[in-house]
Amino acid sequence: MNRLPHWDMSPIYPSPDSAEFHSDIKRLSEKGRELAGAASSLPLKDLIALKDECDSIIITLTAYADALLSTDSDNPIFLKASGEAEAALVEYQSAEDAFLRAVAGRKDEFSDPELRNHRKYLEDILIEESHLMTPAEEALAAELSRSGSSAWERLMRSVTSTVTEDGKTLTELRLLASDPDRDVRKKAFEQELKLLDNHKTAIAASLNGIKGTVLALERRRGWMDPLDRSLFSSCIDRGILDSLIDAIRDALPMFHDYFRTKAKLLGVAKMDFFDLFAPVGKSSAVYSFEEARNIVVSSYKSFSSEMGMFADNAFAANWIDAEPRKGKAGGAYDTFFPQAGESRVFCNFDGSYDSVSTLAHELGHAYHDSVVKDLPPSLSTYPMTLAETASIFGEMLVFDHVLASASSDEALTVIESFVQSAAQVIVDIYSRFLFERSAFEERRSGEVSADRFSELMLDAQEKAYGDAIGIKHRYMWAVKSHYYSADFSYYNYPYAFGELFALSLYARKDEEDFISVYKKVLRNTGMKSAAECAAIAGEDITAPSFWKNGIDVIASYAERLKSWL
Predict the structure, then answer these.
(1) Which end of the chain, N or C, is more open, meaning fewer C-beta atoms within 10 Å of its C-beta?
(2) At 37, which helix (H) or strand (E)?
(3) Residue 283: phi, psi to the nearest 5?
(4) How many CB atoms lie within 10 A of CB 152?
(5) Residue 41: exposed, middle, or buried by beta-carbon count in 10 A (0-12, 13-18, 19+)?
(6) pLDDT tens for residues 368-400?
(7) CB of 4 within 8 A of CB of 325?
């Protein structure tokens, strides 16, 4: 395989120690002071415009620094830039607080016709402002975050991306989870457990620090539970979440049946955790990065020529960092830089079909960003629940494209990969949700030991996977970086929401003029609630049948797998 690409960040800033990067830090400081000083004097629409200008700068600064650090967590230049961006964010938060308090006190201006698209934005500000501590307390919380929750998050990321077991990093070991050789998978799994066991104290300290901070601050801000704050940020209510969770529980027997089917296809009596990502079938297809590019571009183009051109440009402009390497974090993500109007995609490409699907997924996020890039942050910042819409849609385009010309062996591999991925987004996400809920409950009473976190994880996995899976993964709490965000708790259920929401939209992709409906949904994700965005497409997410429709799509492919037994 030729050397995999590293992304080109020069259109964002020439370098993290460049004059341009530091000029934006200075500009943000100046604009932030202007925002705080003008909070009561500027017309509301002008005040929001100034806030949008500030937000564009800080989003770009922090996204840039975080992206660089995720490719090399020990790089001193990247670490310095991350610290500088974080310091700028801390300083700016006092201006944000002044803005929220000022806007909440000017409800008489909410009816301005020029702010009609800002209805939800303004309503959310009223709720957010009602949960602020005093200005002095908020300023102190922001300043302490640098040596508190943010420092704990950096520690977790540094430990899990740099430590090794038998010369392999955690990222490299996890990539072996999809190796066709069961002995290789098992050995990598055991090495992973050993690595995490050796460093569990530091990682548990990180999780304790972050969850303890969240509980303390949310309590002082008047949130009854971190889940309430998460639901507000996700633009849904508890009733919608309960409906989603109920649908997931109802679907568990179907997924357990799939796990048993996969065990038979693998030729084992029962699957263990290290078998979850095992490839199925005799297909030996390994994709070069160029082949992956052609598949993604062709798949996108089959639905929309505009989407095809967008994906092609992302590859041509070198937006993608694909090579796994020491110091690079695991996983994949898309990040957007509003000042440049461009995205970047981070992944660890290994030539598997799953890697091709991941590229399509992350470029779906990037396409979503492109649909709203001309809108200001106040109208384009969308919640996690709706963030997965375009990414899952992109995955499905690749799935159908590859399946259309696949041989029987290839079809088996591709279909199983789809159901495997869906099982992660539904079943594993359910276990993550249960774990985080129990972790918060235990943390209320004090520090939680690493071994206790493992017990909670195994209990959550037992509820999700049941006896369909034998050996489970007691250290998944130490693997998933999503638990280590103080800014967004319960970074899990939105994925299940997005999967089922996207599947319901995708089932209608051949309807006349659906491309325009799809773009309209994406366009409004920062301006309307999740329920309102669904209504644009004629969907009702409060109805139990909505979630079942998405589950049924997955179930139909899980059932097809039995024809290969």
Answers:
(1) C
(2) helix 19-37
(3) -65, 130
(4) 24
(5) exposed
(6) 999 999 999 999 999 999 999 999 999 999 999
(7) no
d(CA 500, CA 504): 6
Q: How far apart are CA 192 and CA 189, in angstroms?
A: 5
Per-residue pLDDT tens digits for 488-541: 999 999 999 999 999 989 988 999 999 999 999 999 999 999 999 999 999 999
Between the two ends of the chain, the Cα-to-Cα distance in Å is 34
> Residue 493: enclosing H or E segment and its boundaries?
helix 493-506
Instruction: Compute the distance between CA of residue 526 and CA of residue 533 in angstroms, rounded to an integer.
Output: 9
Q: Side chain identity at 50, as an amino acid letter?
A: L
Amino acid symbol at 243: S
Structural element, H or E, at residue 59: helix 44-71
Distance CA 296, CA 313 (A): 12
Q: Is the alpha carbon torsion for 352, 354, 360, 363 positive or negative?
A: negative
Cα-atom radius of gyration of the chain, to the nearest Å? 23
Q: Would you call 335 helix, strand, or coil by DSSP?
A: strand
Q: What share of the chain is helix, strand, coil (3-state, %, to 5)?
A: 70, 5, 25
Contact 268, 275 (CB under 8 A): yes
Describe the strand order of the beta sheet including 342-346 as a list of residue ranges.
320-321, 342-346, 333-337
Q: Is-contact 463 315, C-beta < 8 A?
A: no
The secondary structure of 423-481, three-state, reads: HHHHHHHHHHHHHHHHHHHHHCCCCCCHHHHHHHHHHHHHHHHHHHECCCCCCHHHHCH
